[in-house]
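Morning!

This is the sequence you dropped in the shared folder:
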Amino acid sequence: MKGASYMPNLLFRTAVLAAVAAAVFLSTALPSSPPLARAASIKDGAFVPPVQIYAPALDQVVRTLPNTRDIRRSAETWLAAAGGLSPRLRIQEESRLVLRISMHPPLPVSKAGLIFHCRELFLLVPLPETKENPQLLAFSTGDGTYIFECTWETLRPFWKQYGLEDLSYH
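The structure's back. Tokens below.
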């Protein structure tokens, strides 16, 4: 029964990726740094962390952006346009950049037969030479983790708007 063994394997791989993503950002977040503090915002009395752009090859956050309504709308567009759940799980050196976007309030998502509220979204951007599409790693308020396929066509307007084409990643 291929279907019965596939789901536990997917859940295990998802848990591993979630742990790696959390370790990467917990080890690189610099809450006391002035750029990070300036990029953070307060929404409805709650602290909203800035958008962090992490380069795995450099092992550092290479840019922070204010977590604006426009950025969260872009993330909502990515999720709406995303295909089904992704079977691929990659981070570390195989990712060019990883964007971390906190969603406040959590974003309601109904996708691929799932219904959840996304509290945090990671955009996993592959290296150009891999010719692979980006992925969306969504963390729900119920501690679920979901990975969706994204396309460059969906991402390109955001990429250009924030000048990420030439951002150093190695």
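Headline: Helices lie at 2-28, 34-39, 69-81, 152-161.

More detail when I'm at my desk.
O.
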